[in-house]
Specification:
By secondary structure, the protein is of the alpha+beta class. Helix content is 44%, strand content 20%. The chain contains five helices and six strands; from the N terminus they run E-E-E-E-E-H-H-E-H-H-H. It has a three-stranded antiparallel sheet with strand order 1-2-3, with no helix packed on it. It has a three-stranded mixed sheet with strand order 5-4-6.
């Protein structure tokens, strides 16, 4: 770490402390050359992948968009807000775990559908009907049959 006062690269850490949440580390440093003291902070910097839309447009991942679409599909359904937040966090975690710089929006949509299927079957069908843009009633009926087949079975864990 270079000294902000004289630019010398030789500094010593005199004190290290974490914040209450444990996600930020504060370090007090002393410059060996000019003997001035300064503070640095270390934070986790996670980079979410960019999302490539169907038309080729690229956008940053936006958790609020995922939450908004899930909330819309779950409108007037008996699902707690905490459960929706947890599902969005799982989606975000899976996207980070993929380690990709860019992902197709289709992948995000599939993850949302998987989470909605676990939370509420009606919300899953609502979301799938818009997301998959069904061309006819038969395709929609197949999605409903798919949910009906899985009703008696416990959901697969990922």
């Amino acid at each position: 770490m270079k000294c902000p006062f004289c630019g010398d690269p030789s500094t010593q850490v005199t004190d290290t402390r974490e914040n209450e949440d444990g996600d930020i580390v504060r370090r007090r440093r002393r410059c060996v050359k000019c003997d001035k003291r300064f503070t640095t902070y270390e934070r986790i910097d996670l980079k979410m992948p960019h999302i490539v839309k169907r038309n080729g447009h690229r956008a940053e991942f936006d958790r609020s968009k995922v939450l908004a679409s899930m909330t819309l599909a779950l409108r007037k359904r008996p699902v707690a807000v905490e459960d929706i937040e947890a599902a969005a966090a799982r989606i975000e975690g899976k996207l980070l775990a993929m380690g990709e710089r860019e992902l197709p929006s289709v992948k995000v949509g599939e993850l949302v559908m998987r989470e909605l299927k676990k939370l509420d079957k009606v919300a899953y069908v609502r979301f799938a009907s818009v997301y998959r843009n069904f061309e006819d009633v038969d395709a929609f009926s197949e999605a409903v049959r798919e949910v009906s087949r899985t009703r008696g079975r416990p959901p697969k864990s990922d």
